[in-house]
Amino acid sequence: MNAALLELCPQSLDQGIAAEQGVIAPRQHPGRTLPAPPAPVAAAGHPDHAATPVPDSAATPVPVFVVPVGSAPHASGTGLSPDDCPGLNGHSRGTLDSAARRRLRARLPERVSAAMADADHWELYGTRGLLVVACGDDARRMGFSVESVRPATTPPYTPYEVLTVHEAHLAAGRPAAARDRLVTRFWVRKDAALQAVGCGLSLAPERIEAGFHGDHGTVRVPGFHGAEVLLSVRNFAFSAAYECAVAVPESLALTPSFSYSAG
Predict the structure, then answer these.
(1) Beta bridge partners of 234
(2) How far does Cα 161 stand from its chain's mean position?
(3) Neighbouring-strand partners of residue 247
(4) pTM, entire model
């Protein structure tokens, strides 16, 4: 597991898959230089452009640690188990009391623990066997989602619960393993986008097109009075066992800066 994760290449998903899917084209990011609060924008008049596989050079990096958790605890007996990770998903520095924060940090690799100690804010995203830690105030304005892929088993949500009619049609024509991966990939993109705008599952994911297009693309989250929030969403392939997506409002110049731990 650790070796697979440490081989991560941030060149994301196969452009051929995106072309085959025929989903929404990505949107342009004109003149992004300084972070600004996300704001709804009108749906019309936003130009298309080709996918850009690397983050903006002017974007502010947000430290993100990827911590694989093996089947056996650390020698000290205080390490996390794979089953601990889902229970940490969605927690932040503010949702854990000081004792819980200390216990968690004691179970993480030293450099991850040190970064958490220095940060005024951090957020956790987890699925079985993997914990993602995003540090700093800028993490509040991003959305992250990570989910394990379980071939030949029921995915975490059925297509009818999270997919649009178009997405469900795309998934239905695939073999079981490919279908489960695609459903999971669509799901993490929607989940990350909803987290980035702070509405969570108060907005039904089947109302949102995942906007998948190769490396990244636009996901449109419905807002008030017909306006929409446009989010740039990128997929990162940590290993064949996981799907991960990171969402940033297109008005912000932020990008994840990943570090990997052998945990």
Answers:
(1) 216, 246
(2) 19
(3) 143, 233
(4) 0.75
- Report d(CA 111, CA 213) in Å as an integer: 34
Q: Measured between alpha carbons, how far is 73 from 80 in angstroms, rounded to an integer?
A: 6
Judge whether 179 and 21 are in contact, CB under 8 Å.
Answer: no
Q: Who's near 14: CB < 8 A, 6+ residues apart?
A: 214
8 A C-beta contact, residue 189 and residue 211:
yes
Read off the pLDDT of residues 42-92 as tens digits, 9 standing for 90 and up: 332 222 222 333 445 578 999 999 999 885 444 344 588 999 999 999 999
